[in-house]
Amino acid sequence: MTSAPRTRRTPLWVLGAGAVAVIAAVLTALAVFGGAALPERAGPPIEELAVERTVLTPGTIELALRNTGPDPVTVAQVFVNDSYVDFAGGDEPIGRLGTDTLRLAVPWMDGQPYTISMMTSTGLVIEHVVPAAVATPPPDPDFFGLMVLLGTYVGVIPVALGMLLLPLLRRASSTVVRVLLALTVGLLAFLAVDAAAEGFELAVLGGGAFGGALLVLLGAALAFVVLMAVDRWLATRSATPEGGSSSGMRLAAMIAIGIGLHNLGEGLAIGSAYAVGELALGTALVVGFALHNTTEGLAIVAPLSSARPRPVALVVLGLVAGAPAILGAVVGAAVNNAALAAVLFGVGVGAILQVIVQILPGLRGEGRTVDLPVLGGLAAGVAVMYLTGLLVAA
Hints:
With 394 residues, this protein is an alpha+beta fold.
């Protein structure tokens, strides 16, 4: 009895490569020949410019522009407070998503408002407002040293102060611990809402070319998924027969990471606000942020009430949560990009939401229900963050 001849199957990678080649060829043909078959667009060109950064030096206002529209834009004339001014830059049309820098010869006065009107080659006027002219700090070592000091004041020190409450938590009952975890959820929920609102506001300032408000959602989704993977990895590495101490440290680490990503966005906002003169540095600001962020340290150590972490581990947790404020302040002062800031605020939102998802199961009591003290802890967390946030006067 003879067996039927076996047919050779085409390897999977060959099928995949062939499909990709066909798709690439069709898309290339559409790009090269498809436009010729379509009619020309009717109406005037759509011209949009976003001012990503404003730098003021004696006698000069410098604008970093980005074309956020579909058509090239050529800046033909510039007016400041309805007066024509000479400018350098903008010699070539700015293509879609392209950038250029205009340097305006303006003898501006400190503290005065200025409306800058840019007239394009088609006659469209695009305005940018400087509410109060303030000299931009030069990017020298002293300036970045100040940003490091400010990030330490509002990030590292407050978180460390909050973590000093750990010895008190170790003597608390299980009900008190659940209330403190609920307080933590309230704190984090407030941070998430606050960061989302800030991110959406910045996304609008950055124009819609990079997605606008979708940048915040994209950053949040990316952070949520990445931190979920990190949590699964930590769970496999820290799995022990006892489980309790290990799970508490893992949760504390995730809370520290989530708060750290939020503080990155917060530091970014602080640095960019100071760079454009919208932030008044002083005792009130430092004390306000210290009170506001001390509660973040409490949130980190709340899961460690039954654990005995080493001092080195506590120091690492504090730096993970607080040190990103330093990086954010430095980057915000140097870059001041609204789209980047929106993404980072979204990352903070996603990280916090992922941590909240992990904490919620621990809020249930013996009957697997959420009791009145826990609900009170949730409300108290939101109230504390709101009230301490009122002390942060920018």
